[in-house]
Request: fold
Amino acid sequence: MLSAVALFWGAGFVLNSQLLKATFENTPSLLNAIRFAISALCLLAVFNKKIKFTKNALIYGGVGGALLFIGFFAQLVGMKYTTPSHSGFFTASYVIFVPFISWILYRKCPHWITFVGMAIATAGLFILNLPFGTSTSDSLMGDALTLSSALMFALQIVWADFALSHNKTDHIQLTFWQIAFAGALFVLYSVIFESKYYSQISWDAGYDLWRLVIVVFGGTAFAYYAQTFAQVHLNPSETSLIMACESPIGAILSVILAIEALAWQTVVGGILVFSAVILCEIVPQLHPKRKRTPPPEEPPDENQTP
Reply:
């Protein structure tokens, strides 16, 4: 499921870029508002009987949604000041933050194989996004904003893991509420600061619709459901490492769609990132998964016939 998420997010690099340039250039937050709001409604329609207003669901979903909002917002602002290569590298650097945040939170040092995998993945991401070009004060500010967005995404991954591993809420509740909160924040921000540009939006159904469908249903509704479901079974480092494949997948799709020419950076960087995933996944005896505490059993229904 996480591999499918990496595929959708890799395609999202291309599709979101096209949507921003063609339709949402002056209203980037509106694009995210549409993504998260429609995804929340979709999840509500599918899981309406399992979604409840509980204290834990609202707290953990609310914090997760706020982290997503801050992360995506910082990424959008950072893209205005930095180059695409910088943005691609620093966005995917959440793969570096996750094991250290988990280390601080759980007081348990990850296995050495994790650090080897992270180092290989980081080298691959660096090569994948070469050349970096000359830095300016604006680009440095954009890099800092994009790096902060990666930190928010890393915190969201670890926060979701904490909620699930400590049985604070289930993966369906967590998925819905964090998407709903992020959507509400983006809608509110867009209405306040971008509504003056709404009349300038030029909508082309033939161009925009299918891209939005993939971004909304594949890259948001399915992606965050898959992430929280997978985190019931995988630790945060594994989760972030697999999802980091979005960067080479995005580069490969750009080549296939003739948006970019095939370069040595794509080949070498992609091989390194995928090798890091394989390294951490084929040696399970050296990289044990943390056992989850099973949720408490519900008391039997007294009216139920044995």
In short: The two ends are 38 Å apart (CA to CA). The chain is about 70% helix and 0% strand. Confidence is low (pLDDT under 50) at residues 290-306.
